[in-house]
């Protein structure tokens, strides 16, 4: 329908938006951030003082590290994505959520699944696939909840009152469809008991499928999903439309096209075909274009609203997350170049890269969104802007220190491992090199403590904002321009 | 298999090029500007009192 023809047309009342499940998901996400980052802090401490596992299996590095990654990615990250997707899809469609009870099922089902899954990891159940460690009963439960998520999301889009589908919904939609495809294919396995299964794939095929899943989980969940969050909450908070809507659409499709091929860069110099490795490298380099297009689009959207940055901690977090997004999406393609990868692979450089994305991009944009969203959901101002500002500086300091420590550790490891003496033998033993990492690991622990202190402030601030209040009712606009 | 993947890759690339051309030629500025404003006008104006 042409814009000018329909402008101002009165439509039937559409009820109010369903936001209570959104509030629940946001609060659960904060709890998962605390639990997941606490587990991360503990494993960082174990790398400094290995004896603090006290000889108990459930406190061992192998189990707690897996709990850390699952809790922060699927507990903290997915709860935040589900909540913000439910919040924004109904608003950008001008209708309340489709099947709100199913949205509650997604919220509760996901939390129970993650809780039971986390306990199973501590008990030693492990499928042995990175970022897909949960065993087959949990894989099935995840698939069921995810399909319900898809029904609510696409059902809302199907009953929308305006014709265009806003760009954030394209990103959230890609998250839902691609993660379903990746999860189901990568989890195909033969169960041999309740707690053990064997992958349907073997050898090099298993490795390729695993990193097709692993890298695209990073791509479509930790990048695409959070770009959905960015494209809705940045314009909303800056109170100005996205700088170039055309660029956002082109960036979406080029991102979707290129990302799916990039996984093999995790398998450089491994027993997979050479051309697959090269394809992974080239597609990773191609990804620079859509990534930086999005970053430029985001920065230009904020241009003109710089004054707001002085006083608004939520916008500060979102803008800083854009800077880290730019850094991580530059560093990733560089690390995928085979001659760089020969130094960086299997070193702590990779850990630093992951955390520049996870802490600097994912966590910061989520914190910024929560500082903006929770007061709106509650219809009350944030409990303390000062605490949020302190959190901002703690998050920035913690992230920078973490990245610098891991860059130092990783580059040292890579160069020392490649050093040969005059007769062509390794100059340093693995044990000696790891022993020399102690100062870097201590710095990483300090960085984690600083970052976690900030998350404690966030949790206190948000729970004080929510305390004694209920989610307010907000209605869609009565008229629409489409 | 290599040629099959290459042909598939080129088809997707063709789709990308066609899409970019379509986005730039077929979408009038007015429609895109209005779409970009969706997040700014998605709630009843008088509902929001947060400063």
How would you describe the overall organization of this protein?
- The complex is a heterodimer of chains A (482) and B (51).
- Chain A has 482 residues and is mostly helical.
- Chain A is 72% helix and 3% strand.
- In chain A, strands 1-4 form a two-stranded antiparallel ribbon.
- In chain A, a hairpin with a 2-residue loop joins β2 and β3 (196-199).
- In chain A, α3 runs antiparallel to α4 (100-122), α3 packs across α7 (203-238) and α5 (136-158) runs antiparallel to α6 (167-186).
- The longest helix of chain A is centred in the middle third of the chain and has 36 residues, at 203-238.
- The relative contact order of chain B is 0.07.
- The longest helix of chain B is centred in the N-terminal third of the chain and has 25 residues, at 2-26.
- Helix content of chain B is 65%, strand content 0%.
- Chain B is an all-alpha fold.
- Chain A binds chain B through residues 3-4, 17, 88, 91-92, 94, 162, 164, 166-168, 232, 235-236, 239-242, 245-246, 249-250, 253-254, 257, 261, 275, 375-376, 379-381, 472, 474-478, 481-482, and chain B through 2, 9, 12-13, 15-16, 19-20, 23-24, 27, 30-45, 47-51.
